[in-house]
Amino acid sequence: MEEINIKTKQLNDFLSGFGSVVVAFSGGVDSSFLAAAALRAVGDKAIAVTAFSETLAESEKNEAVLIAKEIGIQHILLNISELNSSEFVENTVSRCYHCKKERFSVLAEWAKENHYNWVLEGSNADDLSDYRPGIKAVEELESVRSPLLEVGLTKSEIREISRQWNLPTWDKLSAACLSSRVAYGISVTAERLKQIEDAEELVKKFCSGQVRVRHHGNIARIEVVPENIGLIIAPEIASILDQGLKEIGFTYVTVDLAGYRMGSMNANI
What we know:
By secondary structure, this protein is α/β, with parallel strands linked by helices. It has helices at 2-16, 29-42, 58-71, 86-90, 95-113, 134-139, 147-150, 155-164, 190-204, 229-232, 235-248; strands at 21-24, 46-52, 74-79, 118-120, 144-145, 211-216, 219-224, 252-255. Strand 1, helix 2 (29-42) and strand 2 form a beta-alpha-beta unit.
């Protein structure tokens, strides 16, 4: 607990020195904590900006609005589209790099036009252990910083401080943009992103916990937490999911027997 307190103070001192900040806000665990910390450090000189596009599920955008309101930070929605980037659409293993470069370049320009000193994003210390090419894109932008990563806060520490601060996101499930479900080498399109969003909404009607529908062209690969695998492969529910996902546009529907795991699309990298 002492280490958490030390890191919390370091974060507050760090943020206070920025003067005015734009927090890249998704409404997830990390960005919500960062928004709350920025509000504590610089008050109304902090604003949360949700840059939304086809890669963000509508339900997550709506939830971000509600969470920002509960935190009490100024909040705006900024429409962008990573699909304007041919490198992003191509969907190589560097997709996340091109996504972050596009998204944070827009945020940095918005911050400059609106007289904010810095753009803050919510990567944490645990992100260094995964394949995250987006971190490189952030490092290349001079006006973008990653305070949680820079003071060494881990995901579990962020959740614990969020709990202490009574933030509604302290136990929220981890989320990722819809494009992270598209298998590398298959182009990212608005149609495919919508297929994923609709498919996951259908699966969520039958089970709780983490749900991912991975897009492998004409194949939908469903990932749920292991304890829910038996539930969704029960004949009646399996039939509903099979029919529903085929109506969405998939030819084949599978369930991954290993269950949900973060970054499963990176297994072949």
